[in-house]
Amino acid sequence: MLNTLKPFIQEAWNKSGFQSAAAIQEKAIPVILEGKDVLAESPTGTGKTLAYLLPLLQKIDADSQSLQAVVLASSQELAMQIFKEFQKWSENSGIRGASIIGGANPKRQLEKLKKRPHIIFATPGRLLELINQKKVKMHEVKLLVLDEGDQLLVAEHYSTVQNIIKPTMGDRQIVLFSATLKPETEQKAKEIMKDPEIIKIDQQAAGSGDVEHIYFMCERRDKIKLLEKIARLEKSKSLAFINDIGELEIFNQKLGFKDLSVGILHSDMKKLDRQSTLKSFRNGEIGMLAATDVAARGLDIEGISHVVNVDFPKDLAQYVHRAGRTGRMGANGIVISLVTEREERELKRFSKELKVSLHKRIFHKGQIAVPEEKLKR
Predict the structure, then answer these.
(1) CA-to-CA distance for 166 and 159, rounded, in angstroms?
(2) Measured between alpha carbons, how far is 228 from 222 in angstroms, rounded to an integer?
(3) Torsion 359-178-294-286 (CA) sign
(4) Assign residue 249 a region: left if phi > 0, alpha if psi is -120 to 50, beta otherwise?
(5) DSSP string covering 238-293
(6) Which residues contact 182 (CB under 8 A, 6 or more apart)?
(7) Backbone angles phi, psi at 363, to 5 degrees
(8) In a 10 Å sphere around its CB, with 0-12 CB exposed, 13-18 middle and 19+ buried, how is residue 317 labelled?
(9) What's the rounded Cα separation, in Å, for the pair 8 and 266?
(10) For the segment 221-264, what is each residue's pLDDT rounded down to a tens digit?
């Protein structure tokens, strides 16, 4: 399959050091190259981005001056992350790309558009603004990608996405990728697609790493104390999920006083602050990042050792998305849930549905321990 792609893509593949294509790439790339609409579900960290990026690059005519493809992402961070991947894989191709995201300087974005990008990587709100201002012309767009599509097709974004698609070519191709495809997402996707091919890769076929699921029992008010202990674990790189922005700020103040290297990420932060925090986390300058789901959606950060559910996920899909931040591309990881008695019941139901083992743990002398072990010492 890869040896049929353009030389610059094969060159980038050889440089990347990947031995073979991931399951989602094997299945999706040929179908996208055929020009079919695709609805794809594959666990987080299994190579979804390249599954659509490589065929997209194959299809672009670098000699043309027109905008030919649009990649929509559910958050600024995800759009920037995909754009960085594009930069890496499009080297020496002559293909131009531009990132168009909310929170960025509109003037600079207009400058980018003057360079006539072949592909735009965007968040929906800002892109639609520019379409309405006639700064982005969609009439020659042949391929649209919806990354983390289940987030893009929720009620609040659905009409925006529809309005972005409306002015594109009649024979355009739409591909949607997500870690979880709920029936309502599939239904909405089918309304904007033409007879899509449905591809589903399960956790086993995806060959993702060994992820352990554990939990600590506590009262709600004691969750912050447990989080502090997790932040102190040696050689850990943890991503902690907190639902409320106000709570995040309180958490930041409390742990900041204790001289711990933690950072926070949420959608109300300025773009540059978000970028700087993410950079520090990626580089290992901070050992724990506490974030809301919106901000952390789709983030691909190497080496996350622990994912922590401080606030309980609202549903099974959210648990899966969070857990997918660790154990990526064959690495191991631990998912920790801090639960009250009521949340424990719900967590056990999730583990049954996901068919994963779940183990109760305690802290003993600053380390994660099995409850019985403490009694033995």
Answers:
(1) 10
(2) 10
(3) positive
(4) alpha
(5) EEEE-S-HHHHHHHHHHHHHTT--EEEE-TTS-HHHHHHHHHHHHHTSSSEEEE-H
(6) 150, 317
(7) -100, 135
(8) middle
(9) 37
(10) 999 999 999 999 988 999 999 998 888 888 888 887 777 888 99
Residue 61 CB coordination number (10 Å)? 12
Residue ranges with strand state E in the chain: 38-41, 69-72, 97-100, 119-122, 143-147, 173-178, 197-200, 211-217, 238-241, 262-265, 288-291, 306-309, 333-339, 358-360, 362-364, 367-369
Strand partners, 198: 39
Q: Are 126 and 102 in contact (CB under 8 A)?
A: yes
Other CB atoms within a 10 A radius of the CB of residue 150 amount to: 24
Q: How far, in Å, are 118, 141, 170, 186 from residue 138 at the CA level?
A: 11, 5, 11, 24
Q: Residues for the chain: how many in total?
A: 377
| pTM, rounded to two decimals | 0.71
User: In which element (H, E) is residue 23 found?
Assistant: helix 23-33
Residue 313's pLDDT band (boundaries 50, 70, 90)?
A: very high
Contact in structure between 68 and 94 (CB atoms under 8 Å): no
Q: Map tokens 């992350």 to a residue.
A: 81
Task: Specify whether the CB–CB gap between 311 and 241 falls below 8 A.
Answer: yes
Residue with tokens 């989602």: 24
pLDDT category of residue 209 using cuts at 50, 70 and 90: low
- Both tokens of residue 198? 């449905």
d(CA 59, CA 258): 53
DSSP letter at 164? H
- Joined tokens for residue 374: 């403490």
- Tally of CB atoms within 10 A around 32: 26
Contact call for residues 161 and 146 (beta carbons, < 8 A): yes
Beta strands in 141-257 (DSSP E): 143-147, 173-178, 197-200, 211-217, 238-241
